[in-house]
Amino acid sequence: MPRAVYLGLGSNIGDRFGHLSGAIERMAEKGLEVEATSSVWETEPVGEILDQPDFLNAAVRVRTDLEPEPLLDLLKEIETDHGRDIGRVRHAPRELDIDLLLVEGLEYESGRLRLPHREVATRRFVLAPLLELDPELCLPDGRRLADALEALPEGQSVRRIGPLKA
After folding, report:
1. Tell me, what's the pLDDT at 92?
2. Residue ranges of the chain with pLDDT lower than 50?
3. pLDDT at residue 137, rounded to an integer
4. Which residues 6+ apart lie within 8 Å of 97 measured at CB?
5. Is the dihedral of CA 73, 136, 127, 165 positive or negative?
6. Which terminus of the chain is less hemmed in, N or C, by CB atoms within 10 Å?
7. Domain definitions of the chain by residue range
């Protein structure tokens, strides 16, 4: 039975809106059932490289029968299709970034993937769009993501831009 999967999308190079909407179109072409998309949020960069353009971020809820590793492979393929150079330095500017954030009721860890995503509850640019999709969303251990957002310190500027036209 297909499970709900929550994805985070980001882009800060080139046609940022086009990369986000194109990724969603490609997901549907690849067999993911796209159920909902958040608004687009403009966010300042976080991580190791702060001197770069702002990101556009969004969240997407899809349904799929794919297991986590094949799903991750499919998402990496979509990133590459949009020009992402996988060999770049971590947190460098990128045309498209797709993060596998949550899979309904699943905790999973391998050498290349951890679910839920290790930063899902600590980044405002992830939480704001996710909670727009589902204000009651919880981690598999029952922790509410709305509580995680409330607990974040000031900073990590996020600003809703508007709907994502897929």
Report:
1. 65
2. none
3. 96
4. 8, 9, 10, 11, 79, 84
5. positive
6. N
7. 3-162
